[in-house]
Amino acid sequence: MQTHDTGKPRPGKQPRPVRKLSKRLDVARQLHDLEQDAALDIVDIERLRVSVTRSLWVFLAVGSVFTTTGVQDFLAGHLTPADPVWWGCWGVEPCLVGILITILRWEAAMIARGIDIDSKAVDWLKRFLLGSTLVMNVVPALWPREGGISAGMLAAHIMVPVLVFFLAEVMPIVQARCTQARRAVTLTKPENSTPEPVDPVPAAPVETPASPVEASPPAVTTSMALPPVTPPAAPIEAPAVPAETPAPVPAAAVELDGLGIPVGMQQQIRQLVAGSTAPVTAVDIQRATRLPLPIAARVVDRLTPVTANGYAH
Description:
There is one protein chain. Helix 2 runs antiparallel to helix 4 (92-112) and helix 2 crosses helix 5. The chain is mainly alpha-helical. The protein is built from 9 helices and no strands.
């Protein structure tokens, strides 16, 4: 591959270990800046909410399957699968659990917004749903159609409905508390380095005095004729000389070797210095490149002789 000589001095290529370490340092600085961002707390809270909610949904579904069998056994009685009612009994418990979860999700939304639910109708509806599931699961275990009472099945038919109820009760609370924690995180707004434009105040009109020529001559009260008075010549103003604007700092005058800064960031810093009319500060460099403040301060130390009078020493 042939290279064309452009006449510019080619910078020396850094050794491979230096380039690899510079890339690793660049990644480490970016990770450090991201970890300092308050928005990372929102991401962690949202991940926790999703993980806990999925686990609760799985256990709630497993518990609902068990309670559904107890409710179907209580309602179906001695019916056979040939009877449509036998199939319809399978949908009673999912309907009760769905109503319970819907109410508790609404309660969670209100709690997250600081609204207390003090309605007795809501409390009685939740108790009725729990009581219905509990009774329809306990009765078949206490009076089985075949065989005697099994202590294990009786304990399971009491424990699982109560567990399903409390899972449905805890799940909306988890949602509400995670929402409150996410809203409690305060995000800092980025500072605006460019000053806001100020509306120019219109200058008051200056009244210019009338020239001697346009002024009316005083009335002559005597009969003697006065000699004509010639008006003084207006002073000639010298043309305004435009002030010399300082020459922009050449981008090639900035030397940033030896600071461990990647080549891409060095080019960004050179462009920032070349396009800035005011002295570049460490905060400006940090906003443009996301470098740590100590490294940005060292860069400013390198730029100090350049930005002092516009020419490299």
